[in-house]
Here is the input.
Amino acid sequence: MTVLSRFFFFTALSYSQISLASTQLVDNACSTALSEQHVLQSTHTASQADFKADPSLRFLGFDIIDKQGEPHLRARFAASQLGFAYFDVYTEHSYLHCGTFMPERQQSDRQAWAADLPVREALARLQDSNTLGIWVNSERWVDGKLQNFVTDLSYSRTALLKLLQHHDATRLPYALKMQHPSDLNQASADNDIVYCLNSRFGKCDYSHPGYGEPEHLILPIKGEVVLDGYISRLLFKEDVEQGGLSVAATDFGVWNWDNPVYELGALRGNAKAFLAPFFTLSYQSATDSEQIQTKIAWDIPSQYGAFLNRNTYARDYETYWLMSFAFEHNPLGSHEQAKQLGFAEEAYQRQTQTSFIALTGLNEAKQGAFKLAPLKVTYP
Here is the structure.
């Protein structure tokens, strides 16, 4: 199928959309319930070489949600000035999610959508795969004209498999800990993270420093995740661009309803030089096995947590909080471990892979597995 024929084909299947607050739930045309009724011949006829990646589009990450007592894997996306988007989440053997998102009307503000797949189906489709890709053909308005884009990303299959197998109710997936930003005051049971632009009332979790400081969001950023496997290094904007890598660079972002994403590192002249000193990598063994795990920790004090654009200083009760962690990893472990196993340097390098994970706080995600909330930016 051509990209255009794929679009019209899946439009008929996927136009049904259900509102989830500000997120539209799209029918997953690759679920068993739908794909048994239709022959899917999805091939990526438009490659990254044919079109540029869409700078306004973000993959917001995976989550686990409950639907009528059955856990489902939810994949979330968002973009601005969108005409339509066709999306695939795929392995080398099968598809997990696919469909078409059609905005209800043409608009310049942020638009988010999601698709679901039962966890049991997702597990079955991941078992015999080694890779996991996210492919989006999007059309959006640029300077009054519609342009086509193709975004192709390599996501961490290992991390997704770990999420699907997570059953520990005492902690979040990936042992996620979010100290900042978080609901510090816990003034309500809604997990609201309130950012006050011009006051320091008791219900404010965070406040702008006040007069004399530039008008943009400023806040501390601190937390950690634990991922399976040996991660040798994080990949930042400069690494991704120089290496032509198909990952979303390590960074933190804020995204209000009528502006683009603003990322902490990307707003600086050199994202890697700015962000890298605030990250640490440490290694440990899994509690139930000898498998190596990598803890990614970050601690950015508020004086360095300024998103340097005035458009971030705006009232918005659902400013998305975005986190992306891109990394280089090797299933053989460290160089030393691989050498002990008899692998030469060349063989080790051939096993080196790049991928990423994405985590996003938005209203609809507060009931998901990660419990991540957006920023509620206000003038109380």
In short: The longest helix spans residues 3-14.
